[in-house]
Design brief:
Order of helices and strands: HHHHHEEHHHHHHH
Radius of gyration: 19 Å
Number of strands: 2
Number of domains: 1
Helix content: over 70%
Structural class: mainly alpha
Strand content: under 5%
């Protein structure tokens, strides 16, 4: 492989890995607080992209206003989803909450088909993000440069909230022991709603970036990215924000570079994520940055 081709593929891998990392953070946040896998996270990702699409194409909003509106609406949807599908089952067995999450995912997907239609839609072109930038022989879309920046800024902002604010302190308390947090007069419902709101906002941000990088929308577009980002969170150590970012980057790099070096394996691209998951869990069951937890008997 020529050196220029390698750097071209490396740029693509960095872009995809950043997207996976951004979406995986939402998974790991909810799990870190509630020990709940929000299987509807990929569908929230899809809704964020559709909200931005209709804000631009139907309401003729400037793209930056449309993005803010889409992020806000998706965050509110995530809060509503938690109140409707998860909060009533908080003290129920974990399997009940998991079934509710799977049901919510299928419900959102099918409502998406009914409301948005099954025909794929093309995301509007935005000049700022569609410019081709040249670095010698390497050419990349400007959106591919924005995606890693957005991911790192989101990570920095989230870490600041978690480690430097009272809300973050309450999040860590709820994550450590939900019942003890209640005894310390922490409003657990409020903290959980904030967590879902932030996680949904990050999913929407990932959905918007995804549709600008791969400009086609359909109601099932969140299924495979959502599953892969869950895998990325598990690989890095689910519940660990830094681990989610690491897992996302590793998964994105592996997908792009293996296909680049071994193009005959292109048809097996999606399978690489599952193979990587199995290998990591066999070697380190808690994930690369995760910590083993004692199991209550």
């Amino acid at each position: 492989m020529e050196l220029s081709t390698f750097f071209q593929q490396l740029a693509n891998a960095l872009s995809l890995g950043s997207l996976y990392a951004l979406i995986a953070i939402g998974y790991t946040m909810v799990y870190g607080i509630l020990r709940l896998i929000n299987f509807a996270h990929g569908d929230v990702f899809m809704l964020g992209a559709y909200f931005a699409f209709y804000a631009i194409s139907a309401l003729a909003m400037p793209w930056w206003i449309a993005f803010v509106v889409a992020l806000g609406l998706t965050a509110l949807f995530g809060i509503g989803l938690e109140r409707a599908a998860y909060r009533p089952l908080r003290d129920s067995p974990k399997i009940s909450v998991m079934i509710s999450a799977i049901g919510a995912s299928f419900l959102i997907q099918n409502l998406g088909v009914v409301i948005f239609g099954g025909r794929p839609k093309s995301f509007p072109s935005i000049a700022l993000f569609d410019t081709v930038v040249h670095f010698g022989p390497v050419s990349v879309l400007s959106v591919s440069l924005f995606i890693p920046v957005v991911t790192f800024l989101s990570l920095a902002g989230l870490l600041w909230i978690v480690n430097k604010t009272k809300t973050g302190l309450a999040m860590r308390a709820v994550s450590t022991d939900l019942d003890a947090a209640r005894l310390m007069a922490i409003d657990v419902n409020k903290i959980v709603s904030i967590t879902f709101g932030i996680g949904s906002l990050l999913a929407a941000l990932g959905g918007i970036m995804w549709t600008m990088r791969y400009p086609q929308l359909n109601p099932l577009m969140g299924v495979m990215p959502g599953l892969k980002c869950f895998i990325a969170a598990v690989i890095g150590g689910i519940g660990n924000i830094g681990g989610a970012v690491l897992g996302g980057f590793l998964l994105g790099m592996m997908e792009i570079l293996i296909v680049a070096f071994l193009p005959e394996l292109t048809g097996y691209r999606d399978a690489f994520a599952f193979v990587m998951l199995i290998i990591v869990l066999l070697v380190k069951p808690a994930g690369l940055l995760g910590k083993a937890q004692a199991v209550k008997v």
